[in-house]
Amino acid sequence: MTDATIIERAIAEREGDAEFGDFLALLKPRVMSLVVFTAAVGLVVAPQPVHPLIALAAILFIAIGAGASGALNMWWDADIDRQMRRTRNRPVPAGRVSADDARLLGLWLSVIAVVMLDLTTNLLAAALLAFTIFFYVVIYSMWLKRATPMNIVIGGAAGAFPPMIGWAVATGNISVESMLMFGLIFLWTPPHFWALALFLDDDYARADVPMLPVTHGERATRRQILFYAVVLAPVSLALAFTQIGGPVYLAISGVLNVLFVAGALRLLMRSGAEAQADRHLAERRYFRLSLVYMLAHFAGLLAEAALRWSGLDWAAWPQWV
Q: pTM for the complete prediction?
């Protein structure tokens, strides 16, 4: 009996043992929380106010759409997840939820999320949500992830759409501000994810996923991290000079970009032996810094919105700083 047959039999024996927590795990709640946060910021900072009930409904349906993407991703990637230590205990590869159930859950939640967002807000927001789900599941998961080491560069667009969706909920349009929020997440995703891939490269190699550290090595990956950190800086700073930016956001972004670029430069200067000796400690720290970077930038936009609500205007900020 082959190893594959043993694994398939073990999975078949465990199917049907799913609990509520397993179906919740299918929705990737940690990823969903970032989607909800950035979408909510896009909605809140938009110039047009939204009724609180409509705003809550919109965020709920965006969250459901994000969960649908997670379930469909887990259905499709079950074979990869089974090979990786980080993901092998997910509900589908572990056999607690069948692949068919994960697929059906994802499809139904996708339909519910898109239709209900259209009914409660507008067609543009619903269309952006539908495209986001399609992009993440079909373009990234089914195609790019297994085809090219640049998978996360292009595929990162899926995670960059939520603030645009939130903005569209409030305004019914796409603007420079929403495109810059998109650009911030889009350019942030490669250094964020490659930092993770640097200390999980053996996992990706085992699953035959062509992540950049596996195909081009750690040195090339660190160069790309520095490149994207440098390119990201002006895009994130540009938001300070739009109608949703201001001095608080500018200060936060300035400090974080210095730290982010300096951290990427330190990674580039490390040797492979140093990384192995400390078990990629610097890469793990950079990964955590990237999370702070993203959350703090969007928190800065929220702070600017709060200042505007209090009557402090961006145009007059030199007089009150």
A: 0.89
Domains identified in the chain and CATH numbers: 1-173 (1.10.357.140), 175-321 (1.20.120)
pLDDT in tens, 158-209: 999 999 999 999 999 999 999 999 999 999 999 999 998 888 878 788 888 8
What's the pLDDT tens digit per position in 204-245? 888 888 888 889 988 999 999 999 999 999 999 999 999 999
193 Cβ neighbours under 8 A, 6+ residues apart: 152, 156
Q: Is 49 exposed, middle or buried (0-12, 13-18, 19+ CB in 10 A)?
A: exposed
What string of DSSP letters covers 254-319? HHHHHHHHHHHHHHHH--HHHHHHTTTHHHHHHHHHHHHHHHHHHHHHHHHHHHHHTT--GGGHHH
